[in-house]
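Batch manifest, entry 17 of 40.
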Amino acid sequence: NEQEAAPPKKPSNYFFEKRDIQETYLHFNYLTAGLKFEEENAALDILSDHLGLGMSGLLSQELREKKKLVYGVFAHATKYSDAGVFNINTSTKDPEKVRETVLRVMNELEKDFNKKAVEAMKMRTINNYKLINSVNPISTRPLGEEFVLRNRMYTIDEHISALEKVTADRLMEVTKKYLTPENLFLVALGPRDIGGFSLTFS
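Output type: structure tokens
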């Protein structure tokens, strides 16, 4: 069994910096577990693709296709030796609406975790991972980064095996544990301060 992981403490949940630009850049950052928690990190990889992989990603559907609020939105799970970060990044002229939409999507994320949907999410991530590693030599860079962090090569097959083992219960667990307003640090760069966010979703 994996050891219990706990996100590091953070001093504040919001940072704003005024920039003389037309759009506001929003960076949603959730603190997550370190590199050794492979099962949790595999689940976070699947969730990042579910939310932000291509035009069919959940956030792209909500923010771009339905509400026309952004041009692009991206999600990524990054792992380090002692902690990790789950990022959602976008830019918009209506940051308040984007902020509230992202928080609503994250709050309702668990409704997608039925068995059929989870299997589809897993296969999408696995197939995308295989495709990237088969056609793009630059994609070997993460393997070198893994070697530095783990002091050994973490192979493509190992990662695929970890993804295949992810269950609906595991997705539910990491969502409740890490992808919450209490664990979010929001960074906004733009022409005006949007005033942070509420820790209680309404």
